[in-house]
Amino acid sequence: LQGKNRTSLTIGRQARKQIQRLLLETRAFSLLAGRVSSDGKREGGILSEHFSGMNASTSPASLSSLLSDAAQESLQQGSVSDAADLLALAGRYGALLSLLNRELANLLIVPPQQSKGGSSDVAAAGDAQTRQFWRDAALRFHSAHIANGRTHVLEVLEAEDNLALGSTFQLIMNLMVYFDRCHEGLWEEAWLLLDNLQLLPRSENEISRYVDTFHSFDSVVKQSFHNIVLGAMEALHNQHMMLKSVGGGIVPSNTSNNVPTAFAGTVEQRLFELRRRARVLVTFAGLIPMHSVDTKSRIAQMEAYMM
């Protein structure tokens, strides 16, 4: 009897492996595993019908485990999008959000466009398509499962103690919009958006608190923080440069360019504020670890150009 039990267990494991192989080779996820309904629950699918009619060892929870294992195997094979689909079907929303956050954080920066054709253009186009693919997937997920109040997905995240992943997900989505604005040269809009996210200190008195806040961020945000800091300084520097150009580099006492003194004073006040924020940013950046070794020197150089 004990031998029979061991044989049955072995057959069960082999069956799981064969089902996982079938899933990954055919990619017939909807046919085999069903689909994720608007409320975030799995429905339909040949496997769901089979598993729900069996004993506890082949219950729907066991199917979720099988789909989760298939997702991990898919990741090992480099099929990240398939892994995301399988994790959603498995109802493993913490793991799915971790995957989405990692992919999106690696794609924050808009790929630069080249002026001439060549391999670099092809690579940039591929990066842009990849960025758009994951962004569209994230937007669909957010619209269906996060934006509409308390959903099944949020209940799962709460049960897993993974609600922080949802906050990180929404932060990264906002940062993608921020980098879009930078790429488009909309520096004031980009800066206002970033400032409202409250990732960076606004004064010297806030620096210590924001250093502590930085250390509380998810690792995917911290790994990309050098891009955020560099983008912030670029936004400040470009606003400063454009404002000086509009105002002719004036100060309140200089009205030789026929610029009203009141306007000159407003311009100079804004220039002063931009320089002040740049100085705070440089100080803050010096107190946090960043994954790019040249970020601190680059932002210090841009701040120097604003003096």
UniProtKB/TrEMBL annotation:
Transmembrane segments: none
Keywords per UniProt: Membrane, mRNA transport, Nuclear pore complex, Nucleus, Protein transport, Translocation, Transport
GO CC terms in record: nuclear pore
Keyword ATP-binding: no
Cellular compartments annotated: Nucleus envelope; Nucleus, Nuclear pore complex
Coiled coil segments of this chain: none
Main location: nucleus
Pfam families assigned to the protein according to its UniProt record, in alphabetical order: Nic96
Alphabetical GO biological process terms: poly(A)+ mRNA export from nucleus; protein import into nucleus
One Gene Ontology MF term: structural constituent of nuclear pore
InterPro entries (alphabetical): Nucleoporin_int_Nup93/Nic96
Family: Belongs to the nucleoporin interacting component (NIC) family.
Protein name listed in UniProt: Nuclear pore protein
Organism (species): Proboscia inermis
Source organism phylogeny: Eukaryota, Sar, Stramenopiles, Ochrophyta, Bacillariophyta
